[in-house]
Amino acid sequence: MKRLSIGASLLIAAFTLIVACGGNAVNTRGGLEPGTTPGTGGPPLSQSPVVDDSSSSGGVPTYTYDVVNRWPHDPNAFTQGLVFYEGALVESAGLYDHSSLRRVDLQTGKILKKVDVPNKYFAEGLTVFQGKIFQLTWREDVCFVYDPHTFTLTSLLAYTGEGWGLTHDDQYLILSDGTNRLKFLDPVSLRVVRTISVYDGDRSLTDLNELEFIKGEIYANIWHTDRIVRIDPNSGRILGWIDLAGLLPASERSDEEAVLNGIAYDEAHDRLFVTGKLWPAIFEIRLKRK
């Protein structure tokens, strides 16, 4: 793996060359192939998203939710990554020919800033770490790095394998690739430092997707389900489940790929936000033991 650090003019040239030479990938992520068209508020959580379950009995705990607030969300955004940063949401929207990076006002859903990703790329998860926005791509082996305030592209980083979700702890980026493995990456080189594997009993828990690091735990969407799993970042052990069934009614889902995918945490106010691909709403939720 290597770092591709170049000036703004060379970045533009590199984009042009890559887009011109890129081929079409078979799409198994529910998106569209290249060249096609796709059909502050609220009280703090009464219970923190992370609780100590070490003394609980009856196996891995499950949580459900109360809705604290419902905010508007662009129903055309194929949400692949979501974070809360400096009072607004930063979102990565996917699909070939439609991928973008956005800053979104939480209360209104208004897009405050937007940068389109070159058409050859299918944007995936993102996180803000060490004063930079890192945005993955699905199968293109490229991570875009931006200034978080101007959205200026500052560098490209190369990595190997599919990119799905992205978050970070206090030292490393954490990447999901659709398997049951989570990779911890050096944020300068994207070199894999270590991996953990997640099992539900004896079964590999695959389709780990969008990620968020919350109070020492990794929260992960399970693709094509209404569940979020809480994971121990040291061992991969499952610490709990969050059941979000019924959060967005089927009548409001425009497509079979309009699935739960988006977790953001406001650390300053202990607020948890979730949304999905092509969802018309972002929800602030309060967790409660099921």
List the helices and strands and how they pair.
Blueprint (H helix, E strand, L loop, with lengths): L2 E2 L3 H14 L40 E11 L6 E7 L2 E6 L6 E5 L6 E6 L6 E7 L2 E6 L4 E5 L6 E6 L7 E3 L4 E4 L4 E5 L6 E6 L1 E2 L2 E2 L3 E7 L2 E6 L4 E5 L6 E6 L16 E7 L4 E6 L4 E9 L1
CATH superfamily membership, which one?
TolB, C-terminal domain
What is the overall silhouette?
A: globular
Count of separate structural domains: 1
CATH topology: Neuraminidase
Highest-level CATH class: Mainly Beta
Level-2 CATH architecture: 6 Propeller
Rg result: 18 Å
Number of extended strands: 23
Average of the residue pLDDT scores: 86
- Beta content: 35-45%
What does this structure look like?
This protein is mainly beta and 290 residues long. It contains one helix and 23 strands. The strands form five sheets. The chain has an eight-stranded mixed beta sheet with strand order 17-18-19-20-2-23-22-21, with no helix packed on it. The relative contact order is 0.19. The model is unreliable at 1-10, 12-26, 32-47 and 50-57 (pLDDT under 50).
Question: In a nutshell, what does this entry contain?
Answer:
By secondary structure, the chain is mainly beta.
Task: Give structural attributes.
290 residues, mainly beta, Neuraminidase, eight-stranded mixed beta sheet, five-stranded antiparallel beta sheet, 1 helix, 23 strands
